């Protein structure tokens, strides 16, 4: 009953996380597109930086943006913040209920680092905090005079943390923590910089003082960073479904390429929204394509030794013994693993018919990569993986 309740808790938290996350991403995309579509008009109100004409749902909208702020603010001013806050809170709850409560299965891989659960959890929490402090410190000690250099430093910082995660966590644990790190930075940008700066501007207006223009510029810089990090973080968050990513021995390299692909795509869309001529941002298209091609090449399965191709010494009984030892604890009608009440995704590997049916999936998860068993709790050896792969190849898998 407890596992049943926990499973429903996971479903509800994940559902909530998706809803508020979609809201946050939607507002981020909209406001960046709106900001880039602003134009100078012949007739504008005093203090207005630019205006945009929009059409949606059969209606026309005329939106103004002030260079700093208007002389006075209405009482019904709308603040966009709770989507970011709730996305972070629900995301951390998911990290806790899935990865912390089942640290030995999802977070720890003894072949990478033989950690106790409390050690892995402590590294996780501290790394998220240190990641934000490092990013925020970098932003506060640099100017936006050279935005490309600042972005490159942020890129190196994230890749550096990815290398750290790859050396202490399991593959899926490492990828989800890159996503959690980036998500923490994005949410903290809203909570610690963007909203506080907007409140300072509003307070200055209410008291009759002139707002500091630097406050708005800082908020805009953080907002742009959030916008460019959105596409990479989305893939990191669903990476546990793709062993091609989480099972790669050099996960940090894939993280670097994913950051480049996502940023290039986002740049293409942003500059298109801004109405820039294509000749000014054409380089983003081949840049993203090359990074994507490198990621695909890096994840291509490598040919195994000749011994793997020879399945003459691998019998059906050998395969059943391997799956009984390393798979059946989770993938049986009644799992014995404490983290599952039902076989994950309904997959049962206790008989040859089911093993043959799902052979391509088994090969991807347990032969071509070492994603399964989770955290390699059962200590599956490379020889056993190769034997299983040879049997699958011989049986048309």
Key attributes of the depicted protein:
two-stranded antiparallel sheet, 397 residues, Urate_ox_N, 2 strands, transmembrane helix, Cysteine desulfurase, electron transfer activity, elongated, heme binding, mainly alpha
What does this protein look like?
By secondary structure, this protein is mainly alpha-helical. 63% of the residues lie in helices and 4% in strands. Strands 1-2 form a two-stranded antiparallel ribbon. Strand 1 and strand 2 form a beta hairpin. The chain is elongated, with a radius of gyration of 25 Å.
Indicate the structural class: mainly alpha
Main sheet record? 2 strands, antiparallel
Poorly predicted runs: 305-309
Strand order of the largest sheet: 1-2
Strand content: under 5%
**Which term fits the overall shape?**
elongated
Short description:
Pfam families: Urate_ox_N. One of its GO terms (molecular function) is heme binding. This protein is mainly alpha-helical.
In terms of topology, how is this protein built?
Layout: H1 2-36, E1 48-56, E2 59-66, H2 82-100, H3 103-107, H4 117-140, H5 147-166, H6 171-206, H7 213-237, H8 243-246, H9 251-274, H10 284-299, H11 306-309, H12 316-326, H13 352-357, H14 359-367, H15 382-394
Antiparallel strand pairs: 1-2
Helix pairs in contact: 1-2, 1-7, 1-9, 2-6, 4-5, 4-6, 5-6, 5-9, 6-7, 7-9, 9-10, 12-15, 14-15
Transmembrane segments: 12-34, 84-103, 115-135, 147-169, 175-195, 228-245, 251-269, 281-302
Protein name: Cysteine desulfurase
GO molecular function, one term: electron transfer activity
